[in-house]
Amino acid sequence: MNFNLARQYFYQEIQQPEPQIDLGKAALYIAKEQYPNLDTEEYLNALDTMATEIQERLPEQRYPLRTIQTINKYLYDDLGFTGNKKDYYDPRNSFLNDVIERRTGIPITLSLLYLEIARRLDFPMVGIGMPGHFMIRPEFENVGIFVDAFNRGEIMFDEDCEERLSQIYQQPISSIPAELLQPVSNRQFLARMLTNLKMIYLSQRNFSSSVAAVERILLLFPDAVMELRDRGLLYYELARWQEASEDLKTYLTRLPDAEDAEVIRQVLRQLSVNNDQLP
């Protein structure tokens, strides 16, 4: 595959078995496409340093709540990390290097920072892809708590999560389906980061950057047919008509009865005209 250097690093990282994928490295390789001169080791060392400083502050008895409180005090009180509520859709919120430098981000990137520090402390935590607001939780049996890295490491319980979802959906949620609170895989985590970037760039009509995000999602999940459709439509916007045609035809082959099938066929008819007009 003819990838740029950052994409090659990303591809190599995600080819590893799921548990061995290094989220910090993979996230920095995502950022490296935006910042080609980015030194990934510099930011990995920054994570190491943060973990070392927290390690020195941990109490002798490492109960989960005490460990979380120690991490929270260091990250939010001492270093001043905070959720970026003023400019939530700034693309920089999705790049780990920017999050470390600017000390602000969105739920998933602040969760990533937290997870990477916890991993270095041998304190197992996992990401929870709750709709609308990514969270994390300790991976210990019967702990029953969640951590909201976006809101200063707020400790939450099931009832708090139900209240948060009720606010998001603007209707009462009395019980959260178990699947919404399941840990996400490393590949799912990275795909969610890239989906955020995809949607931010779409809103800015930055189709080149948006298609780059989709291309990496498809490296993670080659059978993600809706991403294949979106890439085809983005190729269309970029006048990459042959590639658009290939993706959209494949989409219809896989989902001939899709709700948007007729719309896609209309796009393909227009693509046929465009291709005929090529010199």
Defining traits:
Protein SirB1 N-terminal domain-containing protein, 279 residues, TPR-like_helical_dom_sf, two-stranded antiparallel sheet, C8orf32 fold, two-stranded parallel ribbon, 2 domains, SirB1_N, mainly alpha
What is the tally of beta strands? Answer: 6
Order of helices and strands: HHHHEHEHEEEEHHHHHH
Residue windows where pLDDT falls under 50 for at least 5 positions: none
Strands across the major sheet, in which order? 1-2
Number of domains: 2
CATH fold name of the largest domain? C8orf32 fold
Domain Protein SirB1 N-terminal: 42-194
Family: Belongs to the UPF0162 family.
Organism: Crinalium epipsammum PCC 9333
Protein name: Protein SirB1 N-terminal domain-containing protein
Offer a quick outline of the entry:
This protein is mainly alpha-helical and 279 residues long.
Care to describe what's here?
Belongs to the UPF0162 family. It holds the Pfam family TPR_9. The protein is mainly alpha-helical and 279 residues long. The protein folds into two domains: 5-181, C8orf32 fold (Roll); 223-279, no CATH class. The protein has helices spanning 5-14, 23-34, 40-55, 64-78, 96-102, 107-120, 158-169, 186-203, 207-220, 225-237, 241-254, 261-276, and strands at 82-83, 104-105, 125-128, 135-138, 146-148, 154-156. The chain has a two-stranded parallel ribbon. It has a two-stranded antiparallel ribbon with strand order 3-4. The radius of gyration is 21 Å and the shape is globular. The model has no long low-confidence stretch (mean pLDDT 92).
